[in-house]
Amino acid sequence: MLRHRSVISLLSNIHRQTCHLRPPSHNLVRTDYLNKLSRCYSNKSKSGSDETLNKASCITPSAATCKSPINNRGSSHIPANKEGQTATNACPPPPDCAYEESAATQASKNNKRLLAAILFTAGTCYAIWKLQPDKDDGKTGLKPSRKSATVAPAKIPSHSSEIPSNVPYLLVGGGTAGFSAFRAIKSLDAKAKVLILSEEGHLPYMRPPLSKEVWYDPDSEKKDELTFKQWNGSEKSLFYEPEEFYISPKELDQNPNGGVAVARGWKVARIDPYKRIAYLEDGHEIKYEKCLLATGAKPKTLDIFSKAPDAIKKHITTYRGIPDYVELNKIVKETDSVAIIGGGFLGSELAFALTRRASLENPKLKVYQVFKEPGNMHKILPEYLSLWTTNKVAKEGVHVIANSEVQDVKLEGKEVSLMLNDGRKVSVNKVIVAVGVEPNTDLAEKSGLEVDPDCGGFLVNAELEARSNLYAAGDCSCFYDVKFGRRRVEHHDHAVISGRLAGENMVGAGKPYLHQSMFWSDLGPDIGFEAIGIVDSSLPTVAVFAKASDRDSPKAIVAESNDNIRSNYEASASSINSSPSPQNTEKSMVENSATDDYGKGIIFYLRDELVVGIVLWNVFRRMTVARQVLKDDRKYDDLNEVAKLFHIFDE
């Protein structure tokens, strides 16, 4: 109300300061009328003072110049025309105030003053509104961010005219797969000119630390700089390369040595594979010779949240990239409670990390983790190991609620209340949905590209080609695995390897995808595992465990390698050709419980008695051995002997 009164007062002052003389409001032929007025409204006395106009000396406009009978002063005066005849349509009488200038000039100035006053008032009101502190409405608990993670990033460059219209190599997507493809292209074509089109507002960066290391460093300055400390304490940037590594999109075409340019915040609307043209959302066309689709994946959510009222949605977010991290990093410093929905990799890592972070910065923060499975990472780990992991997460301080689903969500005062299927209620300030991702294939329908009906993702062959000169890699691709059939993989190592292979094939290598990608997960600096192949808890498993030492942890392996991205190194392993011959010994199926201490070990996943997947639990630098076991494609009578190849019993 106070704001409204101030605006009204300001308008009143402007109105009083404006000359009360206004241009005639009736619909006249203004040029003729003002020309006649100018002949009598410019008289001045010899003393220099304004002279009151003599109405009799004015030539009254003729009736022909009047369009409507208006008398501004409400009098019955009907002027005569120049010939002394009474006008049939009355014109208004001349005003009584003095003029220094002609009416035409004065009217024009008055119009300009009025317009300036309106603009000034509008600007002032907007400035007052912007400077007012945000008020909590008392319903949402936390103050909603004006620039949330869902706000579209700024376009860099700001106009598509600065983006090349013809490039040799076009990469759609600025994630790990796209950047890996650029490196491969540049290694084979030193002067290659590569354009990356990214919907994100940041340069290419790595995602794995966003649920791991970034939360274990309380240094707020590092958070603003988007750097983090690895488990060994060394500092590292989230970005693959600094900004000066890239060249401007508008300079790409003229650079004789080539390079890579990134256009940020730009979306490709469709692609014409036949004409080899990519169309931006504003219609700008980019002709390419080779193109890679590396559009990645987008977070899933639950219907119960997507259909919730906007007041509730302010408390709900997904977690995928840097904008989500920046927003959540601010929230966990201020709020009292957070609920993470999901018990997979992301949900479990994030729950563990936020609880550890709370112990450093915000001890009042309670972290809940809600999921429908019996234990953490239940779809990946055998049940006993999943339950053991859940106990470990709970001991860290996470309020784990397993075997539960959200059936309803309500806004109650300053909190969101989650109604669970078992009748329990969890009230929190923020909800983070971590229930997986889906491939970003929005381009497919408009571009005439095929999407796999079972796995999702752009359908590509073993060379990662969707159409002639058009490739797909990373999370968005569904490729043919020569060993396990058609697959879609969502892990960092696959993004690196598939992006690299696609880049090589864009230059003409023609290689098939033969690599078995690995993935890893860390629950803090002390527990971690690496995996390869088909790792599915519904398969039969055989596990061999040993006692762990201080060297058997993510922290120890990073201290040794100084690299938090474990897919970047694979130590040379002993040849598996020296593996023990099959013996007539009984299989050792490990009997386990959630109370056992699983220091380190190897879990083999079997299909038709063949090893199709392997998890290395707190065992590192042995992935080459695991690859060889899968490649041999043989039945082992005693997997205890195979486990010895991983040196888990070494002191």
Textual characterization of the structure:
- By secondary structure, the protein is α/β, with parallel strands linked by helices.
- It has four domains: 21-120, no CATH class; 163-204 and 239-299 and 439-507, FAD/NAD(P)-binding domain; 303-435, FAD/NAD(P)-binding domain; 518-646, Enolase-like, domain 1 (2-Layer Sandwich).
- Helices cover 26% and strands 21% of the residues.
- The chain is built from 16 helices and 28 strands.
- The strands form seven sheets. Strands 1, 2, 5, 6, 7, 8, 20 and 21 form an eight-stranded mixed β-sheet that branches. Strands 10-17-11-12-13 form a five-stranded parallel β-sheet, with helices on one face. A five-stranded antiparallel β-sheet has the order 24-25-28-27-26.
- Strand 27 and strand 28 form a beta hairpin.
- The chain is globular and about 90 Å long.
